[in-house]
Amino acid sequence: MAQKRADHYTRSDCRVCSATRLTRFLELGPQPLANAFLDDDMLKAGEEEMFPLDLYVCRACNHVQLLDVVSKETLFSHYLYFSTVSRTIPSHFAALAAEVAARHTTRGDLVVEIGSNDGVLLSAFEGTGLRALGVEPAANVAEVARRRGVHTMNKFFTEDTAGTIARELGKAKVVIGNNVIGHIDDLHSVMKAVKSLLTADGTFIFEVPYLVDLLEMNEFDTVYHEHLSYFAVRPAKVMLERAGLALVDVKRQEVHGGTIRCYAKHIEAGEPPSATVQDLLALEERLGLGTMAPYEAFAGRVQRLRTELLAILEKAKREGKRVAGYGAPAKGSTLLNYCKIGMEHLAYIQDTTPAKQGLYTPGMHIPVVPPARFQQDPPDIALMLAWNYEAEILAKEAAFRRAGGKFVIPIPMPRVV
Ligand code: TYD
Ligand code: ZN
Questions:
Q1: What is the pLDDT of residues 264-286, one digit of tens each?
Q2: Is-above-0.85 flag for pTM?
Q3: pLDDT tens-digit profile of 61-88?
């Protein structure tokens, strides 16, 4: 993996409503790219690019976002994130596929997924009689999907791509975008592409982490350069309406630390928003998401989290305890770099993703090792960087805890279990 120089620019307007009054409320950087793990050669070369990692809120539509944009070709042409890394995500997606097949489509309809990753969701449509197509820009990930038999276009989803699909396969009854809308800089053009691809009665279903959960649970580590937007319902509605789509329903989900699944239709279909849409808009109003107060309070809690986490790690060091990291997710990079946690704190990080093993974490350069190391050489304390899989990991590592091992779970405030 040769280190290419990344293209980067800083925007000056809101990517949802184009207003230019944006207020910065959290500075986490400069930071390296969260998935830019280094090999030995890159580590020796000592060159690592850093980019500002600052969160802003738009004072017109409340959209929380990064303004520093690293080009999508740099971030997404070769990708290290595979949806199948856990048990939680495949079962979450199987339930979504079952819902789409039962409620939003009939046999023979086309379902298109944007950012279809390794095909985990679309493979769940097998046997439903639906036609499924994935659009995935990362060649290495698209290849994995194809090998498991999922029809996949190795492209970015653009107005052009949507046009090609509509010509060759017809319009889509359902377009799905899970954990991808927040990664898109030019939201408006992608929304127009979705609009053009949907049948007149079609549904656009997308999942994004929910800003309310992010703020309440102090999930600052989910902020990294790939994630350009942090959606609340209100700005999501503004984004859709600009493209002629209407938000008709929202369901809160537990995955990824709190997610909203949004359902949109053509405005022309005339479907009114559900009670949940109204309830969440009211909740966001009550929380004052149109004012600076909740963002400033969040930034204060994030600083306190860093102080408390470092205190736990320093104490472990003084007591001669060995600490290792558990999971090397992208969010771990933000947490380690923001808190300045390096090898003086963590001996290694174990991760199940073969593509990450043998490499070093961005910025703090902690070696990533296979899970076998954790079994053979267990630490006294494991810092759970993949805290979004807490239940799954605690169940899997019951023996480690029975033998006296402890986990530190950093979010929402560090605690030892
Ligand atoms: P994830 O939190 O899904 O993603 P992100 O990179 O978007 O923050 O990544 C979870 C990481 O944790 C992934 O690299 C796999 C790893 N992992 C383990 O090593 N062991 C486990 O038991 C689980 C559930 C995940
Ligand atoms: Zn805005």
A1: 999 999 999 999 999 999 999 99
A2: yes
A3: 999 999 999 998 888 887 777 787 778 8
How far is Cα 29 from Cα 178, in angstroms, rounded to an integer? 27
Residue closest to 19 by CA, chosen among 54, 72, 71, 67: 67
Closest CA to 153 of 1, 167, 391, 369: 167
Identify the residue whose tokens are 């503004």. 238
Q: Is the CB of 396 under 6 A from ligand 1?
A: yes
Residues facing residue 324 across a β-bridge: 382
- What is the number of the ligand 1 atom nearest to the C-alpha of 331? 8
Q: Please state, in angstroms and as integers, the Cα–Cα distance from residue 154 to each residue in 143, 150, 239, following that order.
A: 8, 12, 26
Look at ligand 1, atom 19, and give the residue with the nearest C-alpha. Answer: 351
Q: How many Å from the N-terminal Cα to the C-terminal Cα in the chain?
A: 38
Q: Tell me the CA distances in angstroms from 377 to 255, 316, 350, 365, 392, one per residue in order.
A: 31, 17, 11, 20, 21
3-state secondary structure of 231: coil
List all residues 6 or more positions away from 52 whose beta carbon is below 8 Å from its beta carbon.
10, 27, 29, 30, 68
Cα of 301 from ligand 2 centre, angstroms: 25
The whole-angstrom separation of Cα 298 and Cα 31 is: 20
Handedness of CA 212, 217, 218, 221 (dihedral sign): negative
